[in-house]
Amino acid sequence: MQGLLAWVPLLPLIGFLILVGIPLFYRREPPESVITVIGVGSVGIAALFTAVATAAVFWQTPSGVVNIALWQWMQLGELKLGINFHVDWLTLVMLMIVTGVGFLIHLYSAGYMRKDPDFRRYFAYLNLFIFAMLTLVMADNLVLLYLGWEGVGLCSYLLIGFWYKDPVNGTAACKAFIVTRIGDTAMAIGLFLLFYEFSTLNIPELINAAGDPGADREIITIATLLLLGGAVGKSAQLPLQTWLPDAMAGPTPVSALIHAATMVTAGVYLIARMHPLYTLSETAMTAVAIVGALTLLLAGFSAIAQSDIKRVLAYSTISQIGYMFLALGVGAWSGAIFHLMTHAFFKALLFLSAGSVILSLHHEQNIFRMGGLYRKIPFTFLCFTIGCASLAALPLTSGFYSKDQILLRAWEFHQGFNSLWLAGVLGALITGIYTFRVLFLVFAGSEGAASRHCKDANTPAMTIPLAILAILALLGGLLTPPLQAVFGTTAERHPAAWVEGVAIAMPLIGLGVAWQLYRREKKTGEQRSRVTQFWFSGWGFDWLYDHLLVRPFNMLARLNHNDMIDALYKGTAAFSRQLNTLLSASQNGQVRWYLATFAAGSILFLALLVAL
Amino acid sequence: MSTQELFAILPLLLLSAGIVILLLQVSFWRGHRSALATTLITLLLAAGSCFWVGATLSGGVSSVQATGLLLVDHTALFFCLLLLLTATAVSIMGYSYLRLRCNPERNPGSYPEEFYILLLLAMLGTTTLVCASHFATFFLGLELISLALYPMLGFAVTGDLSPAREQAQSLESAIKYLLLSALSTALGLFGIALVYSAGGALDFSGIAALMPELAQTSALFATGITLFLISVAFKLSLVPFHIWTPDVYQGAPTPTTALIATVSKGAVIGFLLRFFNTLDLYGSPVLINLLSIAAIASMLVGNLLALMQTNIKRLLAYSSIAHIGYLVVAFIIGKSTFGTEAVIYYLVAYIITTLGAFAVVGLVADSVEDRILKGEYPESPPSDADNPYHRDFYRGLLWRSPWLASCLAAMLLSLAGIPLTIGFIGKFYIFTAGVEGQLWVLLAAVVIGSALGLFYYLRLLLTMVQRDPTLTAESTGSVQIAVSGQWLLVVLTAILLLFGIFPQLLINWINAL
Amino acid sequence: MTLMAIIILLFAGGILAWLSERYLQRGGHWIGLVSLLLASLLLASYWPYLGAAQVIGSGPWWDSVQINWIPRFGISFHLAIDGLGFLMLALTMAMGIFGLVMTWNDIHFRRGFFYFNYLWTLAGVVGVFTAMDLFLFFFFWEVMLVPMLFLIAVWGYEQRLFAAIKFFIFTQASSLLMLIAIVALAYLHYGNSGQLTFNYNDLLDAQLAPSTAYWLMLGFFVAFIVKLPALPFHPWLPDAHTQAPTAGSILLAAILLKTGAYGLLRFNLPLFPESSAAFAPVAMSIGAVSVIYGAMLAFAQSDMKRLVAYSSVSHMGFVLLGLYALNTIAMQGAVMQMIAHGLSTAALFALVGALQHRLHTRDMTQLGGVWAILPKLSAIALFFAVASLGLPGLGNFVAEFTVLVGSFRSSHWIAVLAATGLIGAALYALIMMQRGFFGALNKRLQKLSPQAPIADLNLRESCALLSLAALLVLLGLRPQPVFDIASPTVARSLAHIETARAQYAKDQGIGTRFTSQEQTWAKPHPKESESP
Amino acid sequence: MPIETAPGLEAGILLASTLFCLGLAGLMMRRNVIFMLMCVEICTNAAALMFVVAGAHWGNADGQVMFIFVVTLAAAEVAIALALVLQFYHRKHTVDIDQLNDLRG
């Protein structure tokens, strides 16, 4: 059974290698069907293996841990690292999300990307992504995790810039990679610090060592904050959130898979995985919570002001991950992972439905040019609505369960009313607003400019995943993952009923506000006040970074284009040439001058004789 | 004068005899080749006799004092041998040079044989100089060299087949050298006279006996020695007495340039070694400081002057200034056997390399002269690329005449001190000497000088390998040089590589002195 | 004797290639290839030592040969090989073959002479990596330069002459400092022991006064970091790399730069352990600054080859950083970086060369959208670009990571500074992909492509590049064999440092000078346990 | 052996030095090659004078011998020099030394 789990990441890798290696053996491009079979099939089998392994091993023993040692990676002094996998329930949840949702999105992609000239490249990247993501979640040491971490970053980069001919896509891709790399570097430094302190990077050993009472709390705080740096980069949290909205330049299934369901939640996974270290540091926990709270509000407001359907979803993703961070910050570990899971379901559903909309509208993404689509693409409408309901956490949807857990835990953690809880509740309201605003604008009312040419583009390859995801988004709340073995159990305490009531009421209020907003915006069209414009631009972070970092750096690079140190040597050379000219002037060919220099030299020497 | 003394100066006697024979031969039977043959035989005989004399010195007697004027020992004989062999090479170069320009059949007024007589005279001067143990012999030897060199420098004037410009330049170099050299001689003589008036002795061992008193007290003596050294520095073209060097080197017929750059300098170095050793002048910090200053200035100024030079002969002249500067570094470290060894090794390296470089330049110019005489080539070069002394002429030479260019490349690499060549071992000796003497300032100057030097050596080297499609000289095709010249170059390059790769051969020999 | 045979084989092959020029139009390649393959075979004869480096044999050397050369100075022709030497030789051979194969048809002018220089450069490098006599080391150090000079000056691009001279003057001037240091070292040893020798093993025991040792160490250090190159001695590199022909750039980047790093590890650290330890913070800072400065300059370039060249400065900064961190992890990382950088940068140069060969430009303002017309080439370029930015799973990551982990132990802030270079690497690697390969097809290329379809990488080139890619992946996922091979050498260098530190501590009572480096942040750290 | 200098020697040195400096000055100031040669002669003779004075001071013949050498040298030198000057005049029709500056740089 362990072997089966080892095959889970390997299968997508094999798929990737086959897809990439095809030109070595065949001159012509293989048909799409073959590519689909390889690309989707490999992930499908991986999903199957995961399911089998889950059923066979873990179902009975929720506390079970499977360690798979593949081979020794490096062993240098105390640095002992293996290519080893560590599978527990936390990993398993992630595995199921990655392979399961991943498989569905792969399947959907086969329909969505049909007839794209780079079909093969697309699936190669996707498979590579799945492999990297699986490595990330299965790694038993932080360096292997980092391998997956960077690997998913690379795939994200490649897929955002998949349609490379448009330079805008490329810029967005670069931005995504570099911004996350900043976080990654912080994380790498965190790794160095952890190794420096504990002489190991193996996660279980690390957790053991940190648990030792003699462990230096200060170092743990710094290290966890540095890891948080990595997490905020990858999960697009404040202050490194700016890349995610731009990342929507990639194909929509990619946004669903990478920028909603899996990769961006890696930060949450990381912190959850390292949670024993975080619990040791008050500061780190607070930081995580504050980052989450701030991000969920900021991104929520930005989502309200967007006009691009995918950007709305992108900001909503940032905001929802903010919830997860908030959950982590208040110690609701399983809540965070639960929300991660449900979010994967409904956000994937939303993105895929949005993809259907976009494809049906011939790549129109502006919601103000849509409207009244509920008649033209009813199935998509249905799916999107389910997704919205779940996202807004309407009762009985999956999102409701997970979000509710977070809010309750936030209340509890600080024993009653506190700002984190308030932020969460306010966020729930905002979520309701932007979710239903986009739903109304796209599907309700009269037809928009682009809706007229709408043609249902769904193929079976697309509808099946949509349907499954819709079911999951609705009922996923019932699938509470048994994470107690990983995170330990917390005593269930029920706060006052009104607290629950507020949490339930908020999305409904949001719905109402959204309706008002929809009515107004339908009339005015795409117009923004100064405030909404500010929200629209993502609170000016892009502008700030551009002026604070990008431009100075570019200017510095331009200024130093020719390497100022080289100027030093060029100066020496020029100086030598000057001396040459000067001395050459002494060789003027005049005998009497020569005689004079001879005499002068003699006098000089005699003078030196006296002087010395 | 005993038989032993006469035998000891056998090389000098053979040279004298050769001169007389050559004079007689020329007056009865003129012929360029036969004159060359006599010269070669004389030089080789004299060189061979060095071995013979050296063999007799191997016993208890390590040196023979021939009268009060000459002292023959192993070192002196080694220098004689080295310089005589150098002169052999120069005479071969001279043949190639004179064959074209001083052809009595074309121009009855030209006397190529005179060149060889003068060469032998100069060699008599050098052998006298390296054996000198008295100021009189020093003076005699030095003047013998100078007096022979004046006409040799101006030799192009007599063979009017040379291009007019070359003739004028040759004359100019002769006059310049004469005036400056005369002044330097006068200064040197004045210095000797002061030394004499301070101590009352002119033979070196006599002065050496007086040294303890003189060195401490007499300003007269110090002034005299300094003036004397200035005149020697002039011959060595140490900065600031270097200024004549490029002009004279450039204007002179190339074989004469080679002679003045190698033989005359080598003889002076040989003499200086003995002079400093006998008088133990290394102990005088003032003189050593003066020499150090001159050495540093030579290394820097010489290399800086050469930096942008396009005329090859001038370039080599400047580079020789720098090289003598390097050599002085080894010279300064003093009396130890290592210092002498380093000086001699470096000198051998310098002589072989310089000789080779000038040989290439001369032979290339001769080949052009050949074509001028055949009317294939304009007498006054229309562009730099057609001037055989200009760097541009060498553009792409490696592709046109690979062997010739390879030889020059080897010489240049040796000058730059790159391994596989004798120049590298020489440079290594300089560094070792500098380290042993802890002369860090001087070593720094050597490093800076070498870095500067690389620039112009490499520029010339890389000019030869340029693949320029707009090659103007490509039309001129390959450079055909005389067979004798080819042999000369091959032998020189072979020695250069041999002693570069297996330096121990030469070291053993030097250490046996 | 095998070592001698390798060197002689390469020298002889070079001469043969030159001589064959007159008779065979295309003989040079084959002679070159055959000599390199034979040399590799000879090298492969050391395979028994690979697995059991510590078990077999007495002493650290796998094999050595010693012939008296210049007894006057105690100089001998002394070659020896150990793990590090083997790795470097293997890299040399592999990259030699790679460069040859990649540029199989590039050279049209004087092929024979080209391969003569090519092989002689390699022969010189082999000498450098095996010489155990300091004089001989210097000898080869210089010998490898001259043919390289010709490679740049004859077959280079627009400004080849300037670049060649600059390259040569930088390396030569600095190596003269090393020569002084070598001679001084030998003479000081002579003064102490009465035995004049340039033998490496003997000189290891030289007793030097600290201040003297410091100066000598600087002499070596400068020569090596010029070659490396590190700030502020790097300006020769972009010019030389950019102007050299593709094969020359490959040799330069993959092998010649490594001689500097090799020298630091083999000579500088063991010969002057105490002063090296004292100097380590400075050297590490230089390394870290090089990392960032190189990355920044790479980012600023529009000439793709120049970009790759500056990226070398950045990468080699890690080597310097790692070597002077003076602990096993970082030093092993540095060794790994030498190899990984060799592979990735050589491939990038080869790719730029292939691009220039096809599109006649390497200026990124004239490129763009190349992926559309040359997908294979671009895909492989992508691979090596991400390798160069240190993507985990590839050799470069293993190297950079271990270097940083190790150097973090020695100095937190310097390691953190160098770690920001990871961001810089992402910047330049991605900007290269972005401007060169992605985006809309450049107008100039649009004009170019319809008339004559541009051939993508052919089988020969693809195979050569893919094998490098495979090697990088292998190094990234299974680097342990390399670490094992290098470990005795690294351990020995470290042992010298440790002894010196211990000695110093003994001299000073309780030594705090060297350990103080390690406790800038937190509590003192348990000493690393070394098992040499 | 008398180390301290007798008054006669001092005067001789003074005279010879003055003579030498005069020659040197003339050498630098005159442009006519013939006159320059004469100035060189003055310098040379200053040295010769010095030998004679010193020889007289020490009471040995070496100084006189050197004097004869010097005179011989001067004669030989002048002979060659005049030949060269003649050639110079032939070509340039002048004996102005400043016209002799083809070689420079």
How are the SSEs ordered, and which strands pair?
The complex is a heterotetramer of chains A (about 600), B (about 525), C (about 525) and D (about 100).
Chain B: H1 3-8, H2 10-28, H3 32-56, E1 63-66, E2 70-73, H4 74-101, H5 113-131, H6 135-153, H7 164-199, H8 204-217, H9 219-236, H10 245-251, H11 254-279, H12 285-306, H13 312-332, H14 337-373, H15 397-400, H16 402-416, H17 422-437, H18 440-464, H19 483-501, H20 503-511
Antiparallel strand pairs in B: 1-2
Chain C: H1 2-20, H2 27-44, H3 47-51, E1 63-70, E2 75-81, H4 83-102, H5 111-130, H6 134-143, H7 145-155, H8 160-193, H9 200-203, H10 210-227, H11 236-243, H12 246-271, H13 273-300, H14 304-325, H15 328-359, H16 370-373, H17 375-388, H18 395-410, H19 412-419, H20 421-437, H21 443-451, H22 459-477, H23 480-507
Antiparallel strand pairs in C: 1-2
Helix pairs in contact in C: 1-2, 1-5, 2-4, 2-5, 4-5, 4-12, 4-15, 4-23, 5-6, 5-7, 5-12, 6-8, 7-8, 8-10, 8-11, 10-12, 10-13, 11-12, 11-14, 12-13, 12-14, 12-15, 12-23, 13-14, 13-19, 13-20, 13-23, 14-15, 14-18, 14-20, 15-17, 15-18, 15-22, 15-23, 17-20, 17-22, 18-19, 18-22
Chain D: H1 7-29, H2 33-58, H3 62-92
Helix pairs in contact in D: 1-2, 2-3
Report on this structure.
The complex is a heterotetramer of chains A (612), B (513), C (532) and D (105). Chain A has 612 residues and is mainly α. Chain A has 26 helices and two strands. Chain A has helices at residues 2-25, 32-58, 89-112, 119-138, 142-160, 167-198, 203-211, 217-234, 243-246, 252-261, 266-273, 275-279, 282-305, 309-329, 333-360, 373-376, 378-391, 398-413, 419-443, 460-475, 484-487, 497-524, 530-536, 541-559, 564-586, 591-611; strands spanning 66-76, 79-87. Chain A has a two-stranded antiparallel sheet with strand order 1-2. The N and C termini of chain A lie far apart (92 Å). Chain B is an all-alpha fold. Chain B has two domains: 1-172 and 231-283; 297-513, no CATH class. In chain B, a hairpin with a 3-residue loop joins strand 1 and strand 2 (70-73). In chain B, helix 13 (312-332) packs parallel to helix 17 (422-437). Chain B starts with a helix and ends with a helix. The relative contact order of chain B is 0.09. Chain C is mostly helical and 532 residues long. Chain C has one domain. In chain C, helix 12 runs parallel beside helix 14, helix 14 runs antiparallel to helix 15 (328-359) and helix 18 packs antiparallel against helix 19 (412-419). The relative contact order of chain C is 0.09. With 105 residues, chain D is mainly α. In chain D, helix 1 (7-29) packs antiparallel against helix 2 (33-58) and helix 2 (33-58) packs antiparallel against helix 3. The relative contact order of chain D is 0.13. Chains in contact: A-B, A-C, A-D, B-C, B-D. The interface between A and C is large, with 60 and 66 residues.
